[in-house]
Specification:
Blueprint: H1 2-128, H2 131-136, E1 137-142, E2 145-151, H3 152-155, H4 167-180, E3 184-191, H5 205-224, E4 231-235, H6 248-254, E5 256-263, H7 265-273
Parallel strand pairs: 3-4
Antiparallel strand pairs: 1-2, 2-5, 3-5
Length: about 280
């Protein structure tokens, strides 16, 4: 009985000693695990802070990109507006160019037709004149206008504005051409040299040149039936010379009457009306 009592305390002490040893080991293990958890927690917090900073930076970058996009969109809208405006201006300019080209083509067609008619008219007239008449009649086409220049000595009596008999045949041929080309107007223009004239009822070379032109106009009307609405008489006196008046030959060339055959004035007015307006 006594031995049993002694053994029991020894067992209890051993159990307490073992228990004490186990608890310290577990405690150290717990401390180690706690330290690791603490380190992991600190590392996680640092990573979270870094991630938040990166997110904030990305948000700032996104906001800046949005502002840049908005500015770019605004600039693009303005560019589109300017582009549309420029396109409208270009389109308007193209329309004007097309209208101008169309007008130019029309003028070219008219001029081509006029030149062709003038050449036919000139050829018909020169073929109808004799060699002798061609020595005193000069036919030219200048800038779409037919000029028939006749020397005064084949048309008028000396120092007079009356038509002589010699001129009748030549004027009849010219009248036939005028009658054939009814779309043309006729200007008869008298010219003189610079030698003063003194005749009853003729004050000066202005009068003489105008009276001579009037005589031709009335001759074409009364003898050959040319419509007087197509005829115009004008005098330029000594102020439209084509040669030097210092020589007798020059004076002879300046004493002339020109029959000028031109397209009707209203045809030119129609062309003007068809011209594109300036915008």
């Amino acid at each position: 009985m006594k031995k049993k009592s002694i053994f029991l305390p020894l067992m209890l002490g051993s159990l307490m000693l073992v228990s004490s040893c186990v608890s310290k080991k577990d405690f150290d293990q717990v401390k180690l695990e706690n330290k690791e958890l603490t380190n992991n927690y600190q590392l996680t917090r640092e990573k979270l802070a870094s991630s938040q900073a990166r997110v904030s930076a990305l948000e700032d970058q996104l906001a800046q990109q949005k502002r840049d996009y908005a500015a770019l969109q605004q600039s693009l809208d303005k560019s589109l507006i300017n582009s549309n405006s420029n396109n409208l201006n270009i389109s308007k300019l193209v329309d004007q160019i097309n209208e101008s080209n169309q007008y130019i083509r029309h003028l070219v067609e008219v001029k081509t037709k006029s030149d062709s008619l003038n050449m036919v008219l000139t050829n018909n007239l020169t073929r109808s004149l004799s060699r002798e008449e061609l020595k005193e009649v000069d036919v030219q086409v200048l800038k779409g206008v037919v000029y028939i220049s006749l020397a005064d000595n084949m048309l008028y009596k000396s120092g007079s504005y009356e038509i002589n008999d010699r001129a009748e045949e030549t004027l009849s041929k010219i009248a036939k051409i005028i009658m054939d080309y009814k779309d043309y107007d006729v200007l008869v223009e008298g010219n003189t040299d610079n030698v003063p004239i003194s005749r009853p009822n003729i004050r000066n070379n202005w009068d003489l040149s105008t009276l001579r032109a009037s005589s031709v106009v009335q001759y074409l009307q009364t003898r050959y039936g040319v419509d007087p609405k197509r005829l115009t008489a004008g005098g330029r006196g000594e102020y439209n010379p084509i040669a030097d008046n210092d020589t007798e030959l020059g004076k002879q060339r300046n004493r002339r009457t020109q029959i000028i055959i031109t397209p009707k004035l209203d045809q030119f007015m129609e062309l003007i009306d068809q011209a594109p307006e300036n915008r």
